[in-house]
Design brief:
The chain has 376 residues and is α+β, with helices and mostly antiparallel strands. It folds into two domains: 111 residues, no CATH class; 240 residues, PPM-type phosphatase domain (Phosphatase 2c, domain 1). Helix content is 49%, strand content 15%. It contains 13 helices and ten strands. The relative contact order is 0.12.
């Protein structure tokens, strides 16, 4: 399943990124085409000067070393073809081929430097992603979980969506949310919320206290941003769920204005309450924090939380992704409640629906109590 999701994401990459290791085939095919055309056309049709295109195309697709190779082949190929078919139009054409070959080399060097710089930025973004969206080990916190993140900006690879699973003395606690806005300010805010959750969820038993600490942390982050010259106060929608160790068929949930999580099980699909409370950072305007709800969750059911990058994903015609319809279809398949399979299937479906053109970051998190616990 993971291979299928990775393949779907790979298909959304630019062609030159997917097939960059084979880019040398394009100038090579062009070189062969020039030779074939020059040999098959009448004497009045001199196509040998088209060799100037070979190093230029190589500069745009290949590295400096291959560009030098194709430049040399073009320069050497002109007199060789002229000696065979004698279709040259004069020294001007040969000088044109030489000029194109010489200019192609520095162009390829500049392009390679730019590509290396972008690669460096992607590495920095990947490091940031690992801080905000750290990998969750299998069985972490006593629950089975799986998460996927699809960035709208495939180069940046990180945005304002966040999630985590925290192992605590009171049972596993999970969070998934979305910071309002985009770019580095949203990433900074997401890091503040996730960092706070990791500490507070471990030390505080009362989920209402956890919610209050998240609210306080976001307010302090907004004040800090304002002191640094920021003009926009940000908030975050989120869902926090606690799997109490002493209540195998119950969970506690706080919904900060987020879409209600879905639950998949043998009985089908149902949706938990949508958040009517204020997002994190806006409790003062709404008259208080959202309430903590204790909800039923059977031992063989899986909770799925997604960001609005799923529910607001559009296809070419502007139609929204129908999450409930996809879940109803999956619910009838064997093993559909497995977290890994569930997030893989949905991530691949979102990529197919949008054709790889996502306008918002997408996060998915599926959690259930482990099968070992169900068999005991």
């Amino acid at each position: 399943m993971r291979e299928r999701s990775a393949k779907a994401q790979q298909q959304s990459l630019p062609v030159l990124v997917q097939y960059g290791h084979r880019s040398w085939l394009v100038p090579a095919a062009l070189l062969v085409a020039v030779v074939v055309v020059d040999g098959l056309t009448p004497h009045s049709f001199a196509s040998v000067s088209w060799l100037v295109l070979v190093p230029v195309v190589a500069a745009g697709l290949c590295g400096p070393q291959l560009t030098v190779v194709f430049s040399c082949l073009s320069i050497a190929g002109y007199p060789a073809l002229d000696s065979i078919w004698a279709k040259s139009q004069g020294t001007e054409d040969f000088l044109l081929v030489i000029a194109g070959a010489v200019l192609a080399v520095p162009i390829s060097v500049f392009r390679a430097q730019a590509a290396a710089y972008v690669h460096h930025l992607r590495g920095a973004a990947e490091t940031t992603r690992q801080v905000v969206l750290r990998p969750v080990p299998p069985g972490w916190g006593g629950v089975d979980s799986a998460a996927r993140y699809l960035a709208a900006d495939i180069e940046a690879r990180v945005g304002g969506d966040f999630y985590d699973v925290v192992a605590t003395p009171f049972g596993a606690r999970v969070i998934l949310g979305d910071v309002q806005g985009k770019g580095l300010p949203a990433v900074s805010m997401a890091a503040a919320v996730v960092g706070c959750f990791r500490e507070v969820a471990f030390h505080e038993e009362d989920l209402a206290t956890v919610a209050a600490r998240l609210e306080e942390r976001l307010l302090r982050q907004n004040r800090l941003v304002a002191q640094l010259g920021g003009r926009e106060e940000r908030f975050a929608t989120a869902v926090v769920i606690w799997f109490p160790g002493d209540a195998p068929e119950q969970i506690e949930m706080v919904n900060f204005g987020h879409d209600g999580p879905h639950v998949l099980g043998p009985a089908g699909v149902r949706q938990l309450p949508t958040g009517r409370g204020a997002p994190i950072g806006l409790a003062q305007l709404a008259g208080g924090l959202p309430e903590v709800r204790r909800l039923r969750l059977a031992e063989d059911e899986t909770v799925l939380i997604v960001s609005d990058g799923v529910t607001e994903a559009r296809d070419r015609q502007g139609a929204f992704f129908d999450l409930r319809a996809h879940l109803d279809r999956l619910a009838g398949l064997p093993g559909a409640a497995d977290p890994e399979r569930l997030v893989d299937e949905l991530a691949a479906a979102v990529v197919r629906h949008t054709g790889g053109r996502r306008t918002d970051d997408t996060a998915l998190l599926a959690v259930r109590r482990p099968l070992e616990a169900l068999l005991d």
